[in-house]
Specification:
By secondary structure, the protein is α+β, with helices and mostly antiparallel strands. About 30% of the residues lie in helices and about 35% in strands. The strands form 2 sheets. It has a 4-stranded antiparallel β-sheet. A 4-stranded antiparallel β-sheet has the order 2-7-4-5, with no helix packed on it. The N and C termini lie far apart (about 30 Å).
Length: about 130
C-alpha cells in the first residue's frame, strides 16, 4: 500500500504527464520535477500571481479553473484566457527571466502544482 507521501508523488507525476511540456519526459525526470513541485490549493477569487511581478515559478493546473486577466489604466479587467486541467502557466517568463504577463485568479476551487524557477532551470540543465 502506498504511503501518503508516495501517493502524492504519483498524483504529481500524473498531473505533469497531462501537460504538453512534460508528457514526453523520461520517468526519472518526471520524478525529479514531481518531487520539487509544491501542491497549492486556491479558493475562488484567490490570486495565483499578479502581472508585472517577477516570475518565480512555473504552474501546472491539476484541476479547477483559473482566468488570466490584464487591467487597463482605468482598472477595467480584460480576460485573456481561461485555464483548466493540464495547462502550464508562466512558461515564457520563467524561461526568459521576465515578469508575469497577466494576473491569474481562481474562478473555482483549484489545485496547482508550483515548481520554482530555479528548480525548472536545474532540471533543464540536467
Amino acid at each position: 500500500m502506498a504511503t501518503l507521501g508516495t501517493q502524492r508523488a504519483i498524483d504529481k507525476i500524473a498531473a505533469l504527464r497531462k501537460t504538453v511540456l512534460f508528457r514526453a519526459l523520461p520517468e526519472t525526470v518526471l520524478g525529479e520535477a514531481a518531487s520539487s513541485a509544491i501542491l497549492r490549493q486556491l479558493s475562488p477569487g484567490e490570486v495565483l500571481f499578479s502581472e508585472y511581478e517577477k516570475a518565480s515559478a512555473l504552474y501546472i493546473v491539476v484541476d479547477g479553473e483559473l482566468r488570466c486577466v490584464r487591467q487597463n489604466s482605468k482598472g477595467h479587467e480584460q480576460v485573456l484566457s481561461t485555464q483548466r486541467e493540464g495547462a502550464v502557466l508562466a512558461a515564457a517568463p520563467v524561461f526568459n527571466g521576465g515578469r508575469f504577463y497577466s494576473t491569474t485568479i481562481a474562478d473555482k476551487t483549484s489545485r496547482v502544482l508550483c515548481i520554482e524557477t530555479h528548480e525548472i532551470q536545474k532540471l533543464c540543465r540536467e
